[in-house]
Amino acid sequence: MEGSELDVARLNMFLRTADRVYIVLKEFPSYTFDDIYDNVYEFPWEDYMQPDSEVLVDGKCVKSTIFAISATQKVVKKAIMNRLSDKYKTKNLSESGERFRVYFSNVNDKFSLMLNTSGPGLHKRGYRDYVAKAPIKETLASAMLMLSDFYYDKTFVDPFCGSGTFVIEAANIALNIAPGKYRSFDYTGWSFFGKTAYKSALTEAMDKERDYKLDFYGSDIDGKAINLAERHAENAGLTGKIKFFKKDIKDFDFTEPFGTIVTNPPYGERLMDKENVTGLYKTLGKVYSKLDNWSLFLITSADGFERAFGRRADKNRKVFNSDLECRIYEYFRKEKYFRNGKKGENND
After folding, report:
1. What distances in angstroms separate CA 133 from CA 42, 111, 112, one per listed residue?
2. pTM here?
3. How many Cβ atoms from other residues are within 10 Å of residue 344's Cβ?
4. Rg for the chain, CA atoms, rounded
5. What pLDDT does residue 1 have?
6. Mean pLDDT along residues 36-62
7. Would strands 294-300 and 259-263 be described as parallel, antiparallel, or unpaired?
8. Greater model confidence, 338 or 50
9. Complete domains list, the chain, with CATH
């Protein structure tokens, strides 16, 4: 995939489920450390970096002759620094200046050398400065929301909202607020990179925002989590748009005819024990059984969820929440929801 500096800025600004945006600098076969060193050294790093640039190297080795990640990191870093030293004719490489995160991917002896334009992962939106116990990444939350049938003009609820991630991400999608609006990116600090790309992407993002009244709610039995969710909503510019309140799942009392629940309940891993989690899932199943025209999208690693819930999912899919293997269980409403009451404008 080829692109411009503006494409880099737009990808970082608008991608909701991606991890990072990389620029591929060079690709080559690698069977020895000499192959890696020589090819990395030959790249014109001086066209991108200054003699005082900070260089951080990370990467992966998969099914390759060279499989030692730490040793490969050292070889790549040494080649870059030697090239800069030779081209700038100095041994004073202080690494006190612009930060460059170099990433390598050595898969099946094919070595890809990349620049990380994002910096920290794109799940870090900028609004979540503190986290509750066992949070879900914003990127995974967005992916689940995109799989769901939630829409801006019907009720949305997360009854295990924790620090508010699902409700905030749902509101951002509904209002078309760019996920990168409130954060910084590494590429903006590079002297070789144009200064107008970020401003253009940010202006585009703000021009595309929408203003709707939302019936989006988050609840949790933990009052401290609710305080944190409200703080994060304020950081995200959503005060007054979404609501959070303390409530036990057994007291779920929404009566709207249509709605969507997307949630990340305790798994019995870090929060609660397995016996209590089973009881929690049974309670959730009883609550949901009374909601004929609500849909439910739930992620958990717990074995036997469907048995405890009391109903097989209409669909489920395997995903990983960090390093934990989980499943997303999808339960669909009995009747289709039509926008504005008009057939043919189905939300699906």
Report:
1. 47, 38, 36
2. 0.91
3. 6
4. 24
5. 74
6. 98
7. parallel
8. 50
9. 22-116 (3.30.2130.30), 138-181+210-339 (3.40.50.150)
How is residue 160 written in tokens?
A: 């295990």
Of 114-123, 148-157, 333-342, the one with minimum mean pLDDT is 333-342
The DSSP code for 251 is G
Question: Among 126, 119, 125, 154, which Cα is nearest to 142's?
Answer: 125
To the nearest 10°, report the CA torsion of 114, 115, 119, 124: -40
Tokens 């609820």 belong to residue: 157
Long-range contacts formed by 194-197: CB under 8 A, 24+ apart: 194/5, 197/4, 197/5, 197/6, 197/8, 197/9
b/e string for 14-29 if b means 16 or more Cβ within 10 A?
bbbbbebbbbebeebe
Of 8, 6, 10, 68, nearest to 36 (Cα)? 68
The average pLDDT across 279-303 equals 95
Look at the chain and count its residues. 348
pLDDT at 337: 58
User: Which residue is listed with tokens 């339960």?
Assistant: 331
